[in-house]
Amino acid sequence: MPKPTKSNLREFKDHQGHFSLVRNFHLADLFTIMNGVCGVSSIFSSAHYLLDNNNKEAIYLALLLPACGFIFDALDGKVARWRKSSSMLGQELDSLADLISFGVAPAFLAFTIGMRSTVDMIMLTGFVCSGLARLARFNATVANLPKDAGGKSKYFEGLPIPSSLALVSLMAYLVKTDRIHQDIPFGVYFNSIHPISLIFGLWAAAMVSKTLRVPKL
C-alpha cells in the first residue's frame, strides 16, 4: 500500500467531526475491513459448530472464510495502487485484519475441531501471539527492508501470517475425511497433545524468525 503523504496526515488531523474516522477511509480500506469481516465471521461459524456438531455447513463455512479474507487482503494493495491513494489507517487496519483472519480464526478453528488439551491451547495461544508480534515487527521495520524498482519490499522477515491458510487447508482435509475431535490426527494423543498442534508451534517460530527471509511473489 502506498505510503501516506503529508496531505493524508493533514487530512486526518484536520477532520474533527463525529464520523471523521469514516471520512478518512479510502476505497482500499474497505477491502481491508472486509478481510476482517471474513475473519470474524469464520470465528462465529466455528462457534455455531461448537454448539451443534451436526452443523457441517458451519464448519465448512468457517474453513472457507479465511481464504475469502486472503482475497480481500490481496486486493486492498492493488486498489490502493490503482487509486494512487492511501489513508493513515491503512497499514494498521491491514495488520489488525490479518491477525483476525489468519491468526485468531485458524486457532479457534483448531480448538473447534478438537485441539483442546492444555498443551494444545498453549501452542495455539503461542501461534496467535507470534502472529501479533510478527505483524508489529513488520509495521515497525518495513521501511528499512530492501526495496525493488517499484518500491516494494524484496522479502518478508519471517513467515507471513497469511501463510496460515496452509494450516486451514490441513484442517479442511481432516474435516473432509472425518478425522476430527478425538481423532486428530491418526487417532492418538502424545502426552495430551495432538501432533498437529506441534505444527502450529513450528509455524509460530517461523513467523517470528529474524533470519528466515521469504521472497515476495
CATH-defined topology: Four Helix Bundle (Hemerythrin (Met), subunit A)
The name of the CATH architecture is: Up-down Bundle
Overall number of strands = 2
- Numbering strands along the chain, what is their spatial order in the largest sheet? 1-2
What is the residue-mean pLDDT, rounded to a whole number? 82
Tell the overall outline. Answer: globular
Mind describing the biggest β-sheet?
2 strands, antiparallel
- Tell me the span between the first and last alpha carbons: 15 Å
Number of domains: 1
Which characteristics define this entry?
217 residues; mainly alpha; Four Helix Bundle (Hemerythrin (Met), subunit A); two-stranded antiparallel sheet; 64% helix; 3% strand
Description:
The protein has a two-stranded antiparallel ribbon. Helix 3 packs parallel to helix 5, helix 4 packs antiparallel against helix 5 and helix 4 runs antiparallel to helix 7. With 217 residues, the chain is mostly helical. The protein contains eight helices and two strands. The mean pLDDT is 82. Pfam families: CDP-OH_P_transf (PF01066). Pathway: Phospholipid metabolism; phosphatidylethanolamine biosynthesis; phosphatidylethanolamine from CDP-diacylglycerol: step 1/2; Lipid metabolism. Belongs to the CDP-alcohol phosphatidyltransferase class-I family. It comes from Wallemia mellicola.
